[in-house]
Design goal:
Oligomer: single chain
Number of helices: 21
Distance between the termini: 60 Å
Shape: globular
Radius of gyration: 25 Å
Structural class: alpha/beta
Length: 594
């Protein structure tokens, strides 16, 4: 039986626990899928990446899916679709797919039809049944009808999105790239809150810091971070102009309206996408790998529909066509550096810069690279750095901020010649903080996540441990700015929320407790603070410390209680493999002068 329920599973028969690590009372042949996935991670990840590589070669008539989604720019919209981007966070498609692959590995392809399912979530049950090739129940047919109805509304919302974009940017001229003599260009997210409004404007990128401007005179191109808002864009352009006048640098907002010509082409491309979506719907849903009985496509179908027929599809088309026009106007550079996250704007930028020969592209992984963050990984056949026949846009080189990230990419098949380690610009402040750590305060620092479901799991386990402690430690709580912890979640701990900056809280923390996916866990571990990461059985282990003894990984409140009660000594030493923190920046200086 597949057990997808918060209720206690039966103990008289073996079950496959969907989102539980198991307990002592379970049937001896019961298997925790989260634990099985970790024990067989390489094979499961490889199978999933192979599926996401092969699905683009599904054929309807004489064309593959990738070919059918080609555009006049020369880039297939497959690469900008959600299944290809492999984003995680609020989407659970990757964990669901991994669990189904694990189930087939456990029971074998021939027994999938014999499994029964207990599931609290009917939407998830529908996806699992479709993936297992089950006959549609009445409830599944009703859900399909509702999904088809929503699907018919998506194109209308998409057209509204297009009209809104054109109206909001009506005062932005079609062209706007200024010619300059720089040999290097940097692409950055524009942190609007960091734009100074005083008479002496200054701006420091939270991602790049001061290093690029200290050792070179690059051009700066800024990606607008949110959906277009006229006031926000006009404010950003005004402030960037003030900055340019103040220090003589070249800064551009990488944003423009759609030309009349591109408006017609965009609409035509969108209509063609709608036709392609309808033609390929059945063959995609029925696609199976040759050695598998699973039909994994229904897991990705909702996000696929939105990224090909909905408002997201229009935003990605706008992104592609405006990037094509802006890059064509850019001067030529020796190198173009950008933030590597496998975001849609990156794929468009890589393709267009390569197409117009504007310079060698260098992707910089500004944060941690993690085994299960599939944005950074792909099937080797899809990796254009080792397979020239692949049309997937990739940079010429990839820079990581530590040996750990480079090792993961190397193990995934990226060629050694394309990888280099540089200093961690985003985390360079940690080098100074190392000398300020005071672990004698006895403060337990609870750090929230940027995802609500991760916070729910974190606080539930933390409160379960904290409430049962006979001697309670002092606790400080810091929410992630994107997803604040609520009083309903925290209960009595809500009074421990601190407004202090993270750096200040870390210097006074004796222990840090956070989620596996939080980058704050890496910061704490690098500083030598004992760090406890709370694993979440509902998802994958997104920690950069997976299979590592450098942090304490716990699954439940009982394990956390033992650590907080002091029955086990908590030790930690500053880690050097995660981030390169050399404040003299010799590697970056070599990159910028080369």
């Amino acid at each position: 039986m597949i057990w997808i329920s918060e209720a206690i599973p039966p103990t008289d028969l073996p079950v496959l626990l969907w989102h539980s690590f198991g307990n002592a009372d379970q049937h001896p042949e019961t298997i925790s899928l989260p634990r099985f996935i970790e024990e067989n991670a390489d094979e499961i990840r490889s199978r999933l990446l192979a599926f996401l590589c092969d699905i683009r070669f599904v054929r309807h008539g004489d064309r593959t899916l990738e070919e059918a989604l080609d555009t006049t720019v020369g880039l297939s919209m497959w690469w900008l679709s959600f299944p290809s981007l492999k984003q995680w966070g609020t989407r659970f498609s990757m964990p669901i797919a991994c669990r189904l692959i694990a189930i087939e590995m456990i029971v074998g392809p021939n027994l999938l039809s014999k499994l029964s399912i207990t599931c609290d979530d009917q939407s998830l049950r529908r996806v699992v049944e479709l993936a297992l090739g089950r006959q549609s129940t009445f409830r599944v047919r009703v859900q399909d009808f509702c999904q088809n109805f929503r699907q018919k509304l998506r194109p209308l919302r998409a057209v509204i999105t297009l009209v809104r974009y054109v109206f909001v940017l009506r005062s932005i001229k079609e062209s706007g790239i200024t010619r300059n003599e720089s040999k290097i260009a940097f692409f950055d997210f524009l942190a609007l809150s960091n734009l100074s409004s005083d008479t002496s404007p200054t701006y420091v990128s939270p991602f790049w810091g001061l290093v690029p401007d200290s050792y070179a005179s690059p051009s700066w191109y800024y990606i607008y971070p949110t959906n277009v808002k006229r006031r926000g864009i006009m404010f950003a352009k005004k402030k960037l102009l003030e900055l340019n006048e103040a220090d003589g640098r070249a800064r551009e907002l990488f944003q423009q309206n759609i030309s009349v010509k591109n408006f017609r082409i965009l609409l035509s491309t969108f209509i063609q996408q709608l036709i392609t979506h309808a033609r390929f719907k059945r063959v995609l849903r029925n696609f199976q790998e040759s050695d598998s009985e699973l039909r994994l496509w229904p897991i990705f179908e909702d996000e696929w529909n939105e990224s090909i027929t909905g408002s997201t599809a229009i935003r990605h088309l706008i992104l592609l066509f405006t990037t094509e026009q802006l890059v064509s106007e850019m001067p030529e550079y020796d190198r173009v550096f950008y933030l590597l996250e496998n975001q849609p704007w990156e794929l468009a930028l890589i393709h267009c810069v390569s197409k117009h020969q504007k310079g060698k592209l260098v992707g910089v992984a500004h944060s941690t690279i993690r085994f299960w963050d599939l944005r950074y990984f792909m099937d080797p056949r899809e990796n254009s750095l080792i397979n020239p026949q692949s049309s997937r846009p990739l940079p010429t080189r990839i820079l990581t901020n530590g040996e750990h990230g480079t090792l993961l990419l190397r193990q995934a098949g990226f060629p050694e010649t394309a990888l280099s380690v540089v200093e961690a610009l985003r985390y360079s402040h940690l080098a100074e903080l190392r000398n300020s750590i005071d672990r004698e305060n006895g403060v337990v620092l609870l750090l929230g996540d940027f995802l609500e479901h991760a916070n729910d799991n974190l606080v539930k386990i933390f409160r379960g441990a904290y409430d049962s402690l006979a001697s309670k430690p002092k606790v400080q709580v810091r929410s992630h700015p994107i997803c604040p912890l609520t009083r309903a979640q925290l209960g009595p701990l809500a009074d421990s929320i601190s407004p202090l900056p993270l750096e200040t809280l870390l210097t006074n923390a004796s222990v840090v407790v956070t989620t596996a996916a939080s980058s704050s866990a890496a910061e704490a571990a690098v500083l030598g603070i004992p760090t406890i990461i709370v694993l979440n059985a509902h998802t994958l282990n997104y920690s950069p410390f997976r299979n590592s003894t450098d942090v304490y990984a716990i699954e439940n409140s009982a394990q956390l209680k033992k650590l907080l009660a002091g029955s086990l000594p908590l030790e930690a030493t500053p880690l050097d493999g995660i981030f390169n923190l050399d404040r003299s920046f010799p590697r970056w200086r070599a990159e910028l002068s080369g």
